[in-house]
Amino acid sequence: MAWEIKNDRPVYIQLVEELELRILNGTYTTGTKLLSVRDLAGEAQVNPNTMQKALGELEKKGLISSRRTSGNYITEDEGLINDLRTELAESEVEAFCEKVKKLGITKEETIELINKEDF
Amino acid sequence: MAWEIKNDRPVYIQLVEELELRILNGTYTTGTKLLSVRDLAGEAQVNPNTMQKALGELEKKGLISSRRTSGNYITEDEGLINDLRTELAESEVEAFCEKVKKLGITKEETIELINKEDF
DNA sequence: ATAACTGTATTATTGATATAATACAATAAT
DNA sequence: ATTATTGTATTATATCAATAATACAGTTAT
After folding, report:
1. Minimal Cα distance from B23: which residue of A?
2. B69 nearest nt, CA–C1'
3. Partner residues linked to B103 by β-bridges
4. In this complex, how many residue pairs, one in chain A and one in chain B, have their CB atoms less than 8 Å apart?
5. Nearest C-alpha neighbor of B65 from the set B81, B76, B49
6. What is the DSSP string of chain A?
7. What one-character-per-residue DSSP string does chain B give?
8. Which chain A residue's Cα is nearest to B105?
9. Domain B11-76 carries which CATH code?
């Protein structure tokens, strides 16, 4: 699976975002066990400490729970997942609209531009 | 004028983005003299060195030109400004679409969400 | 002429991030 | 029972970003 880590922002933040995305869009299934910290770090080609930091953030959000000597598990709280997914979508839309608005692009132009993209 | 600098990304990058936005959307007029480095830094409540770094980036892009002992001036190349404005708008749209797509949101849902926003 | 203001450069210090190299205790696998 | 694997913690080092405090030479304003 693709781990596209750039160096324009803190690596651990990008890891949190990617992991969260995979949980919210179902790439990682509810209740499933994640790869180990070391294996995930290997996949993403980052230091295990950095991946550990990212996983810590995810646990704070309640998206994973760690069982000390067994592994990290995706939450089974699908309500939480759906809520966060909706929340994230809305905040993306809001941020995007604010940006193009500031650029002086109208709503109609914006929708035209989006229609040109392929989903 | 509002300088909303957060600490989630390098300050000088955010300054570049804000200054570029103001040039592209016409807040800063073509050919006009900018405030001095120190005054801009004061407005944005950042260190003058940081503002200076941002202005250096803008000069690389050709959006401003500095006259050593007089000040920094907005480019008069309106073609460049329009090009960059279009370019920026398109890349914003593309990045946004990629994000919502990854979240599993359809194009129709996306356009609905945008229609709810007020431009 | 003098003073104030310009962009620009330099040096030092601090904090955040990332990596590296280990270490440990508890569990799972053999 | 032994070994390997788990999350987790610690210490050290390097780099980047940001701020601070100056300094300088060349206009511009008075």
Report:
1. A103
2. C6
3. none
4. 87
5. B76
6. ------SSS-HHHHHHHHHHHHHHTTSSPTTPBPPPHHHHHHHHTS-HHHHHHHHHHHHHHTSEEEETTTEEEE---HHHHHHHHHHHHHHHHHHHHHHHHHTT--HHHHHHHHHHS--
7. ------SSS-HHHHHHHHHHHHHHTTSSPTTPBPPPHHHHHHHHTS-HHHHHHHHHHHHHTTSEEEETTTEEEE---HHHHHHHHHHHHHHHHHHHHHHHHHTT--HHHHHHHHHHS--
8. A89
9. 1.10.10.10
Q: Where are the domains of chain B?
A: 11-76, 82-116
B69-CA/D29-C1' distance, Å: 13
Instruction: Tell me: pLDDT of B1 over 90.
Output: no
pLDDT along chain A (119 residues), means of 10: 93 97 97 98 97 97 96 98 97 97 96 95
